[in-house]
User: Which sequence fits this backbone?
């Protein structure tokens, strides 16, 4: 995993000030903060009209809300998130913002819930399985090779269609290549150093 700015600045002997931290957080905490706009809009168009969504790794909840808003009214929306993130600001707590996003969706009539947990916890897998299958599962949590594979193995079977963020990265990209070779119904967009891939699980290559 890339070193956080906190650690990087420490290695360079440069103080990482509160002002720097606030600037980074402001750059992330807006609708397209961690997404490429073209990629995100493409994905939203692809999933328009779904009635159930599960997102693994929601951070501030902006992408979760965007997906809900292209789904059918009163859709079921579920999120599993640690509530804090190691990158780019070490130890940032995003649970309050995500809870706010969930409450906003509830106020709009969605059946929305958020579980603060590691996606690898057996309790989290059981929690998500209660409402499976989902029309769309979006995997955007642990980007390590082991982590993204675990999320695919644990939550991929719960989705009729499964999406991955950051397929342009080395770790997610390696798994995505395997998935593309096994599932012929796949689509992708790479307009940045992130990328999004979508696969339909109904048909698999023998």
Assistant:
């Amino acid at each position: 995993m890339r070193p956080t700015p906190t650690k990087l600045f420490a290695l360079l002997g440069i103080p990482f000030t509160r002002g720097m931290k606030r600037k980074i957080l402001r750059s992330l905490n807006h609708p397209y903060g961690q997404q490429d706009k073209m990629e995100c809009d493409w994905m939203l168009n692809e999933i328009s009209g779904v009635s159930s969504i599960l997102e693994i790794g929601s951070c501030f909840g902006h992408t979760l809300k965007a997906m809900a808003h292209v789904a059918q009214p009163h859709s079921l929306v579920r999120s599993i998130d640690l509530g804090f993130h190691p990158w780019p600001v070490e130890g940032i707590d995003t649970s309050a913002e995500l809870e706010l996003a969930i409450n906003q969706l509830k106020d709009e009539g969605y059946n929305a819930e958020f579980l603060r947990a590691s996606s690898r916890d057996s309790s989290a897998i059981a929690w998500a399985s209660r409402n499976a299958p989902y029309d769309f599962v979006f995997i955007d949590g642990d980007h390590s090779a082991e982590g993204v594979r675990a999320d695919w193995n644990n939550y991929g079977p719960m989705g009729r269609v499964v999406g991955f963020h950051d397929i342009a990265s080395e770790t997610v990209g390696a798994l995505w290549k395997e998935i593309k070779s096994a599932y012929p119904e796949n689509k992708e967009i790479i307009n940045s150093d992130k990328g999004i891939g979508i696969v339909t699980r109904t048909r698999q290559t023998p």
